[in-house]
């Protein structure tokens, strides 16, 4: 039997930590309006797995979830710092926000989804200057 891939992650304040055992099937950059509201950004970056398992290492009691009524849109987060955290959806689908992982992932984004909902300003990002840190 081969080695099981393990990924570790945590929230911003460090109260919540978790382990994901298994591989990710896909990595979607979602531009839907729900994900824009969730993240306050142009898109969400979520990893999906039908087979990986999630175990909370610490702070499980600080994890809360919100499901938008009338939709399948769900978000789990730390109730202390608000950081996005993994959630298990219907049919055992594990969704892990890529930014909450502390370990590197080997999968590259699979696709941009709901691109018809892209923020108008997102189309101009290629022309915006980049800095390694906060500009002076």
Overview of the structural elements:
- This protein has 136 residues and is mostly beta strands.
- It has a single domain (6-119), classed as Metal Binding Protein, Guanine Nucleotide Exchange Factor, Chain A, CATH 2.170.150.
- 5% of the residues lie in helices and 35% in strands.
- It has one helix and eleven strands.
- The protein has one helix at residues 33-39, and strands spanning 6-10, 17-21, 26-30, 44-49, 53-58, 63-67, 74-78, 84-85, 87-88, 94-97, 111-113.
- The longest helix has 7 residues, at 33-39.
- The protein is globular and about 40 Å long.
- The N and C termini lie far apart (53 Å).
Overall 3D shape = globular
Strand order of the largest sheet: 9-10-4-3-11
CATH topology: Metal Binding Protein, Guanine Nucleotide Exchange Factor, Chain A
Which stretches of 5+ consecutive residues score pLDDT under 50? Answer: none
Estimate the mean pLDDT confidence.
90
| Rg estimate, integer Å | 16 Å
For the record, the CATH architecture stands as Beta Complex
């Amino acid at each position: 039997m081969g080695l099981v891939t393990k990924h570790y992650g945590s929230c911003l304040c460090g109260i919540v930590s978790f382990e994901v055992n298994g591989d990710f099937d896909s990595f979607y950059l979602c531009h839907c309006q729900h994900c824009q509201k969730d993240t306050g950004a142009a898109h969400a970056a979520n990893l999906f797995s039908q087979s990986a398992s999630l175990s909370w290492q610490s702070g499980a009691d600080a994890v809360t979830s919100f499901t938008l009524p009338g939709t399948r849109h769900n978000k789990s987060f730390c109730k202390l710092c608000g950081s996005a955290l993994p959630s298990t959806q219907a049919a055992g689908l594990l969704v892990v926000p890529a930014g909450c992982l502390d370990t590197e992932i080997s999968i590259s984004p699979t696709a941009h989804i709901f691109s018809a909902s892209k923020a108008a300003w997102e189309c101009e990002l290629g022309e915006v200057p980049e800095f390694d840190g906060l500009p002076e």
